[in-house]
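Example 355.
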Amino acid sequence: MKRMTYIVFISIVVTMLMASCVGHFPRFDQSGRYILQRLPDGAELYVREGIDAIEITLVGEGLKIEDLSPLQGVLIITRSNHSDLTVAISGFRNVDFSRPVLLISSEHAAGIAISKCDTIVLNRISNSYWKQNSLDPELIGDYNGDGYITLSDFASFAPAYGFSEGSQEYDEKFDVGASEKQYSGIWQKIFSVPGAPDGSITLADFAVFANNYGFANPYLGTWNFTGTIDYESSTYGYVKATGTGTLGISQQNWEMSGPVEITASSTYTDEYGNVKSEEFSIEIDSVDIEFTSTEMTITGTMANPVNGAKYDILMKGKLRVEGDVIFAESSGTGEGYGIFLTNPVRKIGEWTAHK
Ligand SMILES: [Ca+2]
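Predicted structure in complex with calcium ion:
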């Protein structure tokens, strides 16, 4: 009998040891989607790799929204309903899934539990990239239209979460769950082709928004230009010039930052037939830029550096992506691309730019 007690005692110790080992390697819930690991002063939530968004309902004594801290830069949307907290979490693009994504601080750690869980995995479209058509990629989730998806856009999205058509909070622009990634290169990681709204702002919509969160329109930033002008001018005779310039585009309305200036070195034949060589800069008074998924078009007014006369110019180039670099170029792209003087339209050169 004593021996029996002894064996039972040993087996209990072994079981306890095993249990404490398991404690260091927390296990997923039965459905394998999350781990809620209790701490002395709260709990941590881990999610399974591959999930794009998760919504949990937390129960526990005295739990408040302020007790929740998102970790690793994830986005959370919380709703409080009596003693329950509903928390939607997404934005797992840069998350290390072996670490927690949510910290719950509570004096009553033992009572924290998850009563409901919902998750979503977005469609992975891998074989339909490289779309070339007339549709412009759209920066889905840029609700204030500045070209960046930031906290300010999240502040618009979050209040609509959980609401459906017919309610005041619902707005179709947040109903983006059916959007797709169809472009390659610079747009590849961004949901940029809108899908049909389904009438409710749910986890799928949050997952799409959160995926795009932090991205900016890839066309924004500093572009470096090089161009060559090679034509017969009625005023200056034969003009051959090469030039470089930069253009900083800071916002999605293609507002530019800094002066737009092109410096050029040119050789031309003057009215007496003398070949001249000059360095000069061309001030571009006004520039409008338009992008489609395949083209960059610049129209502007340029002052002639010699006599100050103003000309309307048009530059049209094709967009091409190589790794993270985006090119706009006219050389070798065929009819309609190049540098043009307008009124009347005549082609005067070629250009290329990259960002
Ligand atoms: Ca924005």
